[in-house]
Design brief:
It holds the Pfam family Dak2. This protein has one domain: DhaL domain (Serine Threonine Protein Phosphatase 5, Tetratricopeptide repeat), CATH 1.25.40. About 65% of the residues lie in helices and about 0% in strands. The structure holds adenosine-5'-diphosphate (ADP) and magnesium ion (2 copies). One magnesium ion (MG) binds next to loops. The site of one magnesium ion (MG) has 7 residues, from loops.
Length: about 210
């Protein structure tokens, strides 16, 4: 059973991690966009961390609260997208954790991001981390892997996918305006997505 406390701990760690990566993420976004991605993510998570989640009846509700907060506080294109991810995952996260249930929930979240932002695989966005992480989870589910090892595989796939965005040409968001100079640079939203998945993964236990 996922707990509200686990969501709070994840939020604390995300805030701490983003605080330490503000400059790096702003620098990447400075090359590809307008240089504010690190500031946006840190502001959003710092605001979400100030939510009082103690009244939430369960982890699903806590995730939805965080999602709504991110939509309103991250700002930029990424706020509604990370917010949608959390809202959808919160709406579908299984009570009893199973690999199939976790994969289905992340699938819903990713579908929400893609519906909202219209990015597809290869556009050099956060979607290019979400989809490979999902592919890994679903492939592990098909071969009957256990939840913990599948989660570890998925966050490794997310890190690899983050690095692979460097070779891509940007087709969505602000960075599409600088598509020629985008090759060779990792997408900042992809970096953030891999960080969020890794901090979350350590708290998922059967
Ligand atoms: P803004 O571009 O408004 O300044 P941010 O800098 O916070 O917003 O976020 C930029 C990141 O958002 C990108 O690196 C990319 O991963 C993600 N992003 C932008 N537009 C889209 C989109 N349409 N679909 C998916 N992800 C997107
Ligand atoms: Mg930006
Ligand atoms: Mg901006």
């Amino acid at each position: 059973m996922p707990t509200v406390a686990a969501v709070s701990e994840w939020l604390d760690e995300c805030t701490h991690v983003f605080e330490g990566r503000v400059d790096e993420l702003n620098e990447l976004d400075g090359i590809l966009g307008d240089g504010d991605h690190g500031t946006n993510m840190y502001r959003g998570f710092a605001a979400a961390r100030r939510l009082d989640l103690s009244e939430c009846p369960n982890a699903n509700d806590a995730m939805r609260q965080v999602g709504m907060s991110l939509v309103g506080t991250v700002g930029g294109a990424s706020g509604p997208l990370f917010g949608t991810l959390l809202l959808r995952v919160g709406a579908t996260w299984p009570d009893h954790l199973t690999l199939a249930g976790v994969a289905a929930s992340l699938r819903q979240g990713t579908n929400g991001v893609m519906a909202r932002g219209k990015a597809v695989r290869g556009d050099k966005t956060m979607v290019d981390v979400l989809l490979p992480a999902l592919d890994s989870l679903e492939a592990d589910a098909r071969r009957g892997a256990d939840l913990e090892s599948a989660i570890l595989d998925a966050v490794d796939a997310a890190d690899e996918a983050r690095d692979a965005t460097a070779a891509m040409v940007a087709h969505r968001g602000r960075s599409a305006l600088k598509s020629e100079s985008s090759v060779g640079v990792v997408d900042p939203g992809a970096v953030s997505t891999a960080l969020i998945l890794r901090t979350g993964a350590t708290r998922i236990r059967e």
